[in-house]
Automatic annotation (TrEMBL):
The gene is ubiC. InterPro entries: Chorismate--pyruvate_lyase, Chorismate_lyase_/UTRA_dom_sf. This is Probable chorismate pyruvate-lyase. HAMAP family: UbiC (MF_01632). PANTHER family: CHORISMATE PYRUVATE-LYASE. It comes from Methylomonas denitrificans. Keywords: Cytoplasm, Lyase, Pyruvate, Ubiquinone biosynthesis.
């Protein structure tokens, strides 16, 4: 699996809202899981200039089988896979994995393939025709995370996440985000 992901030793199991036990989750976690706007904008509002992006994995590789199925892609085709950690002064907040098919990158004029440490949300939420097509949820147990990620972040408990199929000019991309304990801690809103 290391050739397909830095985050995972095996893919998470995803469920729709109706199938998940999400309704019993704490309000602060639900507010992140159900956020409809840009996570980047929300995190910048809380953490200001302390917010940053660390790129963990950025390669053209075949995506996981269930990701290909969700995007309607052949499983052997290479997609741009980008995994990052969103943090505040190095404190991990969110782990994210994005699957970017080549037609989506082309229609976005290659803006999506050269992000570096720029947050994906800054780019995709700037598209006026961005559409959210589907959202699923996962409770990822600590045993699915890779040893590399364990060394980097130290995930001890199950972590909730969501994945969303977006489309830009009708071309899909998949964004998965997992919310680490530090993002759920009460934070003082940053004032610019």
């Amino acid at each position: 699996m290391p050739d397909k992901s830095f985050l995972f030793s095996r893919p998470p199991v995803w469920k729709s809202l109706e199938q998940s036990s999400q309704r019993q989750l704490p309000d602060n976690l639900q507010s992140w899981l159900n956020e409809t706007g840009s996570l980047t904008k929300r995190l910048r509002g809380i953490h200001g200039n302390r917010f940053g992006v660390k790129v963990l994995f950025h390669r053209w590789k075949p995506a996981f089988i269930d990701e290909c199925r969700l995007l309607g892609l052949p499983p052997c085709r290479y997609q741009l896979i980008r995994e990052v950690m969103l943090h505040a002064n190095g404190v991990p907040l969110v782990l994210a994995r994005t699957i970017l098919p080549e037609p989506t990158i082309e229609i976005a004029h290659r803006n999506l393939s050269h992000l570096g440490t720029r947050p994906l949300g800054e780019v995709i939420f700037a598209y006026p025709d961005l559409e959210r097509r589907q959202r699923q949820f996962s409770r990822a147990d600590s045993n699915i995370w890779s040893s590399g990620l364990q060394a980097e972040v130290g995930v001890d408990d199950a972590i909730w996440g969501r994945r969303t199929v977006y489309a830009i000019h009708r071309q899909p991309l998949l964004v998965a985000e997992f919310f680490l304990p530090a993002v759920l801690a009460p934070a003082v809103e940053h004032t610019p």
